[in-house]
Amino acid sequence: MIRYIRYAFLAALGIILVSVSLANRQMVELKLMPDALAELLGFNLSASLPLFLVVLGGVVAGLVIGFLWEWLREYKHRKDATVKKGEVRKLEREVKKLKTKQNEGQDDVLALLDEAS
């Protein structure tokens, strides 16, 4: 059921994006700097693009910047999780070693039962 809702949402989003793109096909000039600053510096990069590319490109750029920002912000949490994972592995090895040492000289079946618990 949820899968169909997701497909319906994606289809609606696709239809909306296509209709917005078709309605905004006029060309706009995208400039790197304002004209006054460009005259002062002596250069200016510009490109003529359809308006929908500028709008959708801005949305995509915002999403990429947001995801990158979150990834960098969560670095300390990923680092802590990695450290804790290493500690857990170390402790699991130590517990296994202690159980092996405790079960020395016991019957093999009893040792296996102790290790399983």
TrEMBL record:
One Pfam entry name: LapA_dom
Residue span, Lipopolysaccharide assembly protein A domain: 43-95
InterPro entries per UniProt: LapA_dom (IPR010445)
Keywords in alphabetical order: Cell membrane, Coiled coil, Membrane, Transmembrane, Transmembrane helix
Organism: Ruegeria halocynthiae
Protein known as: Lipopolysaccharide assembly protein A domain-containing protein
Residue stretches spanning the membrane: 47-69
Keyword Zinc: no
Phosphoprotein listed as a keyword: no
Signal peptide stretch: none
Entry coiled-coil feature ranges: 81-108
A GO CC term assigned to this protein in UniProt: plasma membrane
